[in-house]
Every structure is written in C-alpha cells, then in structure tokens.
Design brief:
- Two copies of one chain form a homodimer.
- Chain A is mostly helical and about 450 residues long.
- Chain A folds into three domains: about 10-130, MgtE N-terminal domain-like (MgtE N-terminal fold), CATH 1.25.60.10; about 145-265, CBS-domain, CATH 3.10.580; about 275-445, SLC41 divalent cation transporters, integral membrane domain (Tetracycline Repressor, domain 2, Orthogonal Bundle), CATH 1.10.357.
- Helix content of chain A is about 70%, strand content about 5%.
- Chain A has helices spanning about 10-20, 25-30, 35-45, 45-55, 60-70, 70-80, 85-90, 95-105, 105-115, 120-130, 135-140, 155-165, 190-195, 200-205, 215-225, 245-265, 275-305, 305-310, 315-340, 350-380, 385-415, 420-445, and strands at about 145-150, 170-175, 180-185, 210, 230-235, 240-245.
- In chain A, the strands form two sheets. Chain A has a three-stranded mixed sheet with strand order 1-2-3. In chain A, strands 4-5-6 form a three-stranded mixed sheet.
- The longest helix of chain A is centred in the last third of the chain and has 31 residues, at about 350-380.
- Chain A starts with 8 loop residues before the first helix and ends with a helix.
- The model of chain A is unreliable at about 1-10 (pLDDT under 50).
- The interface between A and B is large, with 135 and 136 residues.
Amino acid sequence: MNSPANFPTKTERLDIALRSRTLGDVAGILAEMSPGDVAYLISSSPPDYRAVLLGLLEPEQEALVVNELPDELRSAALADREPEALAEIVEQLDDDDVADILHELPDEVTGQVLAIMDEQYRQRLQKVLSFSDDVAGGLMSTDTITIRADLTLDVVLRYLRRHAEIPPNTDNLIVVNRNDRFVGLLAIATVLVSDPAVSVREMMITDQEAINADTPATEVARRFERNDWISAPVVDDAGKLLGRITIDDVVDVIREEADHSLTSLAGLAEEDTFAPVWQSAPRRAIWLGVNLATALVASSVINVFQDTIEKVVALAVLMPIVASMGGIAGTQSLTILIRAMAMGQINDRNQLWLIGRESLVGLINGLLWAVVIAVTASVWFGDPILGVIIACAMLINLVTAGFTGAGLPILLRKLRVDPALAGGVLVTTVTDVMGFLAFLGLATLFYR
Amino acid sequence: MNSPANFPTKTERLDIALRSRTLGDVAGILAEMSPGDVAYLISSSPPDYRAVLLGLLEPEQEALVVNELPDELRSAALADREPEALAEIVEQLDDDDVADILHELPDEVTGQVLAIMDEQYRQRLQKVLSFSDDVAGGLMSTDTITIRADLTLDVVLRYLRRHAEIPPNTDNLIVVNRNDRFVGLLAIATVLVSDPAVSVREMMITDQEAINADTPATEVARRFERNDWISAPVVDDAGKLLGRITIDDVVDVIREEADHSLTSLAGLAEEDTFAPVWQSAPRRAIWLGVNLATALVASSVINVFQDTIEKVVALAVLMPIVASMGGIAGTQSLTILIRAMAMGQINDRNQLWLIGRESLVGLINGLLWAVVIAVTASVWFGDPILGVIIACAMLINLVTAGFTGAGLPILLRKLRVDPALAGGVLVTTVTDVMGFLAFLGLATLFYR
C-alpha cells in the first residue's frame, strides 16, 4: 500500500515543492504530469489545496484534468464558470465524457453550452445526451470508424490513411450495412497482418453481439469483464449503430459500482474523501438519525422486561452479546448477498438455495458459540440457568441473522429498494430486536 | 439489476433446458456461448450444478472456461487432474493466465506440469512464475512484439505481416534498444495511418513510463485507471523489457481489490457466493469468535456498574443506544478511510487532516443527536438528569468514533495489519466500551 520504489520521483519533487510553497516549481512539475496523475493528486488533497493546484494548470491541461476528476469534484470545479468557458473545456474531450459533464450541469447551462457548439457536433452530442448516464447509450462515444463488408482490406487501409485520426482505444473497426445496421467487427490488427486483397466480410468477427443502448451500465460492465473486451458497439432496438463503449469508461463503472456497495452498507452517500466538515456532517447525520430510531425500537423491547432485569442484573450485562453476535452474523450474510447481486449472480434459480445455506450456517455457528457462551455465562455468574437461556437466545438470533441477512436483500430488490443502503440498517434492527426479545423473554419465563 | 431486455435469449433457453434437465440441449447452448459467459453461469450456480455444467464442455472450451473462473472455483475444478491433463489445459492460455493457475497448484504438481512443456515455453513461463501474483511481474504476459527505433514503418508493417499473429489487446508495439531496454511505444494505429517511409523513432510515444516488475498490483491498477491504458510494458530494475500487462488482467485486480475491502469489513475471507455450508460455516465462525471475545470485554465494563443499573433500570434500557450510535459513526469513518486507502489517497500530507475532519464530524453530529436523545430520554422516563447523562455520553462516544474510525486504520497500516479486516472489529469494540463506560460511568456519578 505504500508508495512503490519506482513511482516517478516527480511525486517526491512535488511533495517538496508543495511543502516549501514554491508555486512556480509546482506548476512546472504539474505541466509534465499526465492529466490522470494530476487529477489523482488533486482528489487526494484537502479542499484548500485543490483550488490552488487547479489554478496552476494551463487551460488545455485543465480541461483534460477536470475530465479525470471524480464526479463530485468535477461539478465543484465547473460550478461557477461561464458557458463560453465550459464550451472551451468540453471541446477538447471525447463526446461520452462531454455528455457526462453536461448531464451534471443545470439544464439551462447545458442549453447555453450546446448553443455555442457547431451544428454537427451538437447533433452527435444530443444523441448521447438523450440517454441517462447509467445505461449503455449514456456511456457511448459516437466517435467511431465504420466500414462496409464488401470492401477489400486494401481499400480499408487506404481509407484509414486518409481518415488519419483513429479515436483512442480503437481495437476494432465497426462493419455496418447500407442501412447503418451493425454487421460485425474487424480488428485493426487483422487489417495490419492480412492479405490486402481479401474482403472485410471474410475477415470480420461476427460472434461479438452489439450492446443495446438501453442496457444498464452495470450489465455492460459485466459483459466487458466476462469477455475481456476493449470496446463494444452500441445499437438501438432496430440494430442500427449508435456508437461504441470503450474499456476506460467501463473501468469507471466497475469502480463506482464497487464503491456503491461499500459505502451504502455503511450508510454513506457517495462521499468525497476530503469533503469539508460542513458537507460530510449533514450527510452522515441522516443515517445516524435512522439508526437512532431503530435503536429506540430495540430499547423499547428491553423496556418491556424492566422487572426481569431488576431481578437479575446479570441479564443487562450479557444482553449486548446476543445482539452483537446477531448483528455480525447478519452483516456477513448481507455482505455475501450484496456482493453477489453486484456481480449479477442472484437469480430465481439460486436465491432460495442461498437463503437456506445462510440459515444453516447460522444454525451451525449458533450451536458452536451457544455452547461457548453457555459455559462462560454459567461460570461467570455461577448460574447454569443463565447459561441455558443465553445459549438458546444465541442460537435463535444467529439463525434469524442468516435468514434475514440473505432474505431481506432479495426482498428489498424485488421491492426496488437499494438492498445495500436499506439492508444494513434493517438487518441489524432485526437482530437487535430478536436478540433482546429472545434473551430477555426466555429469562422472564425461567426466572418467574 | 434485473436481467436487461436484450440479454441473449440463450440465457432463457438455457434456463428452460436446465429446468427440464435435458443435458443434450444444455451442452448445445453452452458450446455457442463465450468462455466468459459460461464461467459466469457456472460461478452463479449452486455447487451441484457446477460439476455437471463443466462436464458438458468440450476439452478446448473447457480450458478457456476454467481460465475465466474465479480463483477459488478454478482451483477446485483443477484439483484432482493429472499433470498431463493440466498441461493440455494451460497450453491454450496466455502465459500470465498460466502463471496464475500454476501459482495456485502445489509446487510438486507445478514442477510436473512444467516438465511436460517445451523448453522455450517453460523458460518464458518461469520468468513470470518468479514473481508473486500481487506484483506487476506476476500479472505480465511475455507474449510481446518488440521492434527497434531505427526501422521504418514500412519494415515494421512487413515484419508484422510475416509474424502473422498479434497477441490479444495489443494496442502498442514495444520499442527496445539493442540491449532489450525499453525505449518507447508505437501505437499500431500509427503504423496503419502514417507515411510508411518515416522511422519508428519519429512516431513513437516516449511519455508513457514502463512499470517496474516489483510494483504492487494495486498500484498498477491505479496507474492504468488514471491514464486509461490498454497495455503497459513491464521492465526490471535495469530497464530491460520483461513483458507487458493488459487491461483485462487489471480489471480483475480492480474487482478483487474492491471485493477485498467489502468482505474484509464484514470479517469474511474471500468467499465463493455458493460455497457449501461446510466451507462457509467454519470460515465465518472465527470472526464470530473474535466478536464474542470483544463483546465479553464490553460486557465486563457493564458488569462494573451492576449496582447503578440495579438502582436505575432505565440505564439498561438506554445503554445500547449509545453504543449502537458510536458503532455506526465509527464504521462510517472507517469505511471512508478504507476506501481512500484502496484508492491510494492517504499519505503523510493528509492523514492528520482526515483524523481531524472525522473527529469534528463526530462532534457536530454528536451535538445534534445528543439534544434529540436528551429530550426523548427525559420525556420517556420523566427524568431530566437521565437526559443530561445520555447526551454527554452520546457526544463523547461520537467524537471517539470519528477519531478512532479514522485513526485506527492509519495506525494499523503503519503496523502492516490489514486495516479493513482488523479495523471493523477494533473500532466497534472501542465504541462499545466507550459507550457503556461513558454512559454508566456518568450515571454512577449523578445517581450516587
């Protein structure tokens, strides 16, 4: 995790320059760095530094750096610019990146920026903008090279020489028919190494299906991952070519998706690591409030058993153990399910099997730790009945944890509620309530 | 999250065939699917189905499918095969994938498989095998096309036509000098579109630095992400070219890294979603045991205050709230830190700032919810003193949560302990102990 031996000494020089606050030096070093590296440096700096670093960039580099920033920082960096300045920045980017940026601006500003652009570019952009950014259409770039199947490779090669500029991440040329329908792909490596006299039709790949523009971004990512694609064509319902998606945008989707599972389980909205206090505090407050409400529910369960606790204070000492173990086991099951959902592994064929497996894991671990806690509690308080009670409660709560941890996210997804965000709080509420109820309820029966 | 409208109807046909158990049909459909899709189907099936599905594949497809399986399933699928059968499978794969597989086999078996291979291939493989699979050297393929800078593009083109096979994901040819040292990259798109008479030297890219073979895999992934690379050359300390890394292997690293943060926080080892009960239960049992130990620590804190609880039973009702809120707040801070560490954002320049920010967020949210819980508790139990006590305890615990949630992972990383795995249990232990101690301790002072 530490900086590797050979990471460009630029970073070290930059560290020194930043520390000694010689801005001229910093600007010089930044100018030599790739846009991605500068964006990384900015996003891993506290807020005060960020504006300073951005301000040191030349306009052309700034556009590329802004493009590489995480969504939230990018919006902040562009927030109060004039439409003309925005148009200048976006003109240097790929159209899928431009669409990303325009999607985040207020509609009015987007209209003003579009109005400045030339007609042809605007039309291309509007094609991408008509899709939301979480489907294939919103990820695509319209900057593609298309060819016909009846050409010879020689003609293709000559066409490419005239065309002169091949868009980045072009591994395949896209073969379309007279009506612009997708037909197949021709690897540019094939153009390089094959006999120039053969036709595109003979050499093209036809077994890579095109992606429908309405396919969810997460499904696009999974198909890229499974098939090791560098790029893939995007078509409309009629099979007409609209554009192509490249791996660099897919990597961003994968990263964001993984990030979403991780942060949602902790009740965090997508949060900038270095957001200032006044941004972070209110966002997290909501989740704490939800948790306070559920904690009060659990407390009201305890409240019912006040008399029993008064009689046997050891119950108050031991009751958090039962709840806590249930919470851990439930979160384990939930995490397994959330991860599997993110990878698209859950379907009608296997979900009941999974709920059964998780309940059974809960039962087995419940038995194991019930024995351990029974012995511990009996010895600690010199009361074997207490041991029996806590063992039963532990067993009940761990089975509940497995069942709920697996069943709830499946139910939530059916109800179209985000299982990662709602699941965490619901599962621990269930295990808290069940833990207190089982333990204190059984105790009330035994100690009457 | 649901299956998109246009996912190949193959899947639906397969569903029907699987349900009606007509294995001949299943085999027919599998033969048409890409190895990645078959691997996905297998990994999202319960254990019983997996062996059946694998058994239906033709030998050649099987090799490619096995290669696409997650590590754990792959090991299981290859576990009891003869060295000859293994050699036959790996011969069809890229050498970085072969190295991956051989890394997981027992040393003895690896030796036997290597002995079957031809001399030249074995030497290439051993170069990759000499690196562990979590550094650049272990991710690389030695299957590269290298050229000299003084050639003309025309010569390169003719060379490629003779060479005939370009390895997958080749976007650049690698330019080396007489001593095999890395000099630069030549995009194959450039070869296609440029004047054949110009030299490689004039057209090559020299601003993409090569990756040292000892660079950690996670750092490799970050550099690919930041710079949108498709492939990157790998060199030794002297700058000599060893091989190249391609984006498909980097995507796997990104996925595994994200997976690690998610599962570790829940105390799960990398676990197959559909692992049978007898595999899952023992793995999770360990974490539950650790949690039981820490829960007993928290209980022993409560135990100290038995007399106070006996006097005011309302304390037992309310005490889980303070602990629970601390646990949530601490997990939020911890998750932010774990995610930032995975993205390589944490360094000496910003870690103190982050600990400060998290503590301050804890303070602000502590104040907010302290007021709410104070009013609630006072009204519920008709005792304003109880309100004051729980408010103070809540404030103390949320500041502790922010400070510990940010500080502990930084400390753990310094001690070279995995912050994601150890962090979760330690942070909640601290917030549980502090929650009970602050609340019951203050109560003991007030209710003397």
